Every structure is written in C-alpha cells, then in structure tokens.
Amino acid sequence: DAGVIQSPRHEVTEMGQEVTLRCKPISGHNSLFWYRQTMMRGLELLIYFNNNVPIDDSGMPEDRFSAKMPNASFSTLKIQPSEPRDSAVYFCASSLSTTEAFFGQGTRLTVV
Amino acid sequence: SQKIEQNSEALNIQEGKTATLTCNYTNYSPAYLQWYRQDPGRGPVFLLLIRENEKEKRKERLKVTFDTTLKQSLFHITASQPADSATYLCALPNTGFQKLVFGTGTRLLVSP
User: Fold this and answer.
1) Under an 8 A CB cutoff, do B43 and A4 touch?
2) Which of A75, B34, B36, B107 has a Cα-to-Cα distance from A94 of 20 to 30 A?
3) What is the pLDDT of residue A20?
4) Is A111 left (phi over 0), alpha (psi -120 to 50) or beta?
C-alpha cells in the first residue's frame, strides 16, 4: 500500500477563494482524521470519521470549514471562503479502530 | 480541561548519550499512550504504543515508560545518533477513545 495520499502537497490561494484538500486513506482502515498543524497551536484535530460517518467535528474552527467522506477511499476538507489565518499544514491520517495512526505527507496551505 | 504537555524547548545532546523526553498529561485517564516522530516537511510517524497496565516498553534503542499515578510518560533514546534528530510527539486517546490528541512535541538535536 502506498500509505495515506494527500493532494495537493502545496496550495497558495487568495483570501476569499475556496480551497479543497483531498485524502485517500490506507485501504481497510476504518478511521480517518483531519489535523491542522501550526507553530503556535501544534497538531490540532479538526474532524474524525469512523466507517465514513463524521463522529466528532468539534475541532472544526468555524462554518467556513467542512469535511466529507463519500466512501471508504476518499475524503475532502473544504474551506470557503479562505482567510490568511487558515494558513497551516493540513494532515490526513487513517487507522484501524483508532490505535496507531498513519499520516499523509500533508498539504501546506498559504492564503494570501 | 484535558491537557498534554511536552517541553517546548529543544533538547540538545551529544551523539552516544541517552535522550530523555517527557510527556505530562492532566484530566486524562488514557488506556494507552503513543509516541510519534516527525521530520521537517513530513507527517508524524508512529514509534511505540504503551498500555496503562504496562510500566515499560522497548523497541531497539527506544524505551518508553508510563506512570499513570504521576500522569507522565518518559521516552528514552539510548546511544543517540544525529539521525535521531527530529520532533517527538506524544499522543493520547480522549475519554471516549475516539480522538487521538497530540502534545505540541519536543525537538531533539543530536550533535556528532
């Protein structure tokens, strides 16, 4: 397995634009997590899916953020409209029953 | 509120010495604790998991201890090498075991 695959690796966008980050988890994993990492706040959990169902989205900062998991092999994190304070590295991770988490390479988002 | 604390200052040691990193937590009763390694520009990589009924766990040059009374885990790297230089993060499941919450990490620098 190629591991967790995220795209794009880098995204630069203007304030107010819509941004969509994509994730392909490891086949067979039933849990998927979206994290955001910044120097100031470290690695923050945004949302957690189990068997494609959102279980906990309490970490999503505001309504501008939304996440979907239409099937077991794909998830998206969308920011609309984007703001400069959204600039961060966004990680997707998957696991089998919330034990060891496997992370993707991350998407570095810059909003100017 | 639940809190995971790791030393935010970088730890500088000489090659060959033992590095010891600390993870303290409050308002948690975790069934297990995990340690991850993160290199610049990459996602965290799982290293070790220790359960609440285990005092100590070893893997090659790594040793982790878990003291549920002190609410602390220690992470040791023996015979450290420059290649061990990275940021090390501890992670705990939340009360419902559904979310994996990370500490802010400690950067380790091993000098030749």
Assistant:
1) yes
2) B107
3) 98
4) beta
pLDDT for A61 equals 87
Question: What pLDDT was estimated at residue B99?
Answer: 78
Per-residue pLDDT averaged across A21-48, rounded? 94
For A4, nearest residue in chain B (alpha carbons): B43
Characterize B2-31 residue by residue with b for buried, 16 or more Cβ atoms within 10 angstroms of its Cβ, and e for exposed: eebebeeeebebeeeeebebebebeebebe
CA distance B77 to chain A (A): 20
The string of DSSP letters for A13-50 reads: E-TT--EEEEEEPPTT--EEEEEEEETTTEEEEEEEEE
pLDDT digit string (tens) for A60-104? 988 999 999 999 999 999 999 999 999 999 999 999 875 789 999
Residues A95, A76: contact at Cβ < 8 Å? no
What percent of chain A is modeled with pLDDT above 90?
84
CB contact under 8 A, B49 and A99: yes
Pick the closest to residue B48 from B77, B13, B86 (CA basis). B77
Chain B residue numbers touching A57 (CB-CB < 8 A): none
Q: How many other CB atoms are found less than 10 A from the CB of residue B98?
A: 13
Of residues A55 and B8, the one with the higher pLDDT is A55
> Do A48 and B91 form a contact (C-beta atoms < 8 A)?
no
Q: Could you give the dihedral angle defined by the CA atoms of residues A86, A90, A92 and A93, in that order, rounded to the nearest 10 degrees?
A: -120
- pLDDT score of A8: 97
Angle at B5 between CA A92 and CA B85, to 5 degrees: 65
